[in-house]
Write a structure and sequence with these properties.
The protein is an all-alpha fold. 31% of the residues lie in helices and 0% in strands. The protein starts with 31 loop residues before the first helix and ends in a 9-residue tail after the last helix.
């Protein structure tokens, strides 16, 4: 299977929380029904802040987004929050 390369992490990068070395990430192979489920809770998002964006600004934006999701989907999103790891 061929995949486009969309980014390359520095050799010093380790997975947050586990400190594991990761050689390759590939697209998810889960069925669409799993990916669309509001109860699916096994994904970790990793992001790089754009130059000039502070961690406090990113936190505030994620809090706003999570608040909207909690209001729209209280049964599944009311008690969820984001976690930042540096």
């Amino acid at each position: 299977m061929l995949y486009p390369i969309i980014g390359v992490m520095p050799g010093t990068f380790r997975m947050p929380m586990t400190n594991e070395n990761v050689d390759v990430w590939t697209p998810s192979a889960f069925p669409g029904s799993v990916m669309r489920s509001r109860e699916t809770r096994f994904y970790l998002a990793i992001a790089r802040l754009r130059d000039g964006v502070s961690i406090d600004s990113a936190r505030a934006e994620l809090e706003t987004i999570q608040g909207r999701l909690a209001a729209q989907y209280p049964a599944t999103d009311l008690h969820w929050t984001r976690q930042f790891i540096r």
